[in-house]
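Supplementary material to the annual report.
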Amino acid sequence: MTIIGIAFATDRNAFRRIGSPKFWLFSIIILLTAGSLLGKNAETVWGIPFSADGLIAGLVMNLRAVGVVLGIALISRYVTREGLFDFTGRIGLGHYVPAFSTAMGTLPRMTAVLKEGGSVKRWWHWDSIADILLLARELALEPAGRGENIYGITGARKGGKSSLLLEIADRCKEEGVRYGGFIQQFFPQEGSGRPSYYALHLTTGETIEVARELEPFVYQFSEMGFEQAGRWLADDIPSAEVCLVDEFGALEASGQGHYHTVMPLLQSYPEKRFVIALRKDRIETLSLLLGLEKSRILDIDGDESEREPFIQRIIGKCN
Amino acid sequence: MTTSDPVTLPAVQHILPPAWREAAVFGALWGAAEVTVGAFLHSVRVPMASVLMAGVAVALLVPSQMLVRRNWFPLRAALICAGLRALAPSGVIWGPMFAIIMQGLVVSLMFILLRKASVAGPVAGGLAALASVGQGLFRQIMLYGGDIWALYVTMLNKGGVWLRLGEERGITTLFLFFSAVALVGACAGFVGWNIGRRALQRARVTSA
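Predicted assembly:
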């Protein structure tokens, strides 16, 4: 009754909370069932037993409910969003608001990757869900300022991205800059003539198949190939200054392929320079994942004059 | 002595500790499910929607905890998810927010107490599902007092008598109902453990 009085005196808008028809319907049901089932010395009214004790108990329950709802309504007028965030800071949850902002920023990145995942088969397979969680963990482990040691090369299919990576490797050799990593080459399969894609280790010349085309636009991928390529890169990194990776495409955009082997290395070696070939049809998602700004991406289909300065930026920073 | 012109210092960037960064990312993933699926189920008033969403939450939280391996991570993620749920375009907010935080608390406690994921997952799932059903009952008790519980028990017993099942059958039926709810939650916890196991296997293979 006290709360009802306070609400009446201070904020009559609070009474709107108890204006819901559903609330009153339930209150009537409580009153009638309490009158019928609770209490003693019931008297029959229209064939239904009712007791005064039960009705009083029902009435008290409803008054209590009204008081609780009004109390919450009164409190909520003073608990603003800013007040709540101030409170979280005072009780030691100071990281809550920045974490919430980070979560809001994470959603577009996750959405982009999940959309890409729609193009990968077996979307609802357990392994796909596991991959999404692994991707989330990697996003969470990324240090601040990610992407500053990464450069991207993009362009049309078979437009010369791998050739440019080879050119960078040759220039590193000339300038005495240590390099490592792998590029991608394709060769026709025996019989069908369809392309098979191989990773070529730049320092040893070893090759391993990573994918093959079974039918037009239908590919079979080799997990073993991706893992081996990742091991090559991991072996080269400690001594290399420039690391070349060919390439990130639809598979990597959905958190598969080279993603799992290369991403931890990007995070663990922020002092190394990584140059990654990026498929143009996935450039936005890949830029988001790698934290790449446009200024660090060279489009080989664009202005030829930007090529040399780009190479100089990579090699020059190592001298 | 010369003084320089006043310089506006750039705002200090808040460096988020790894614990909260993990909570932010996984909380965002969970929040995306809550905002879409959860808001839809509650708005359309699907029966036992709270149990379904508790199952989804546990299936996400258990493998996430297996990957992150940090105490109280589920609770932090739940706080983030609850905040995101509050932004959902749905008339029902406080109930789901409270439920989300309870789910995070339950999973956190079970992993701290039971340690082994294969046990903690299903147990946490069962308890989270029961908590989601119990929340409605708790809300009723908060609003109407302890007498509402007496009213429900009496109704149950009367129902048993009217249906000629016997007075004690009502309680048995209630027990079976809660057992079924707990079983659904435990299954979700088991599924979550399975996903977490696969994720750990894939992480080990790719980092070898």
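Residues 18-207 of chain B form one domain.
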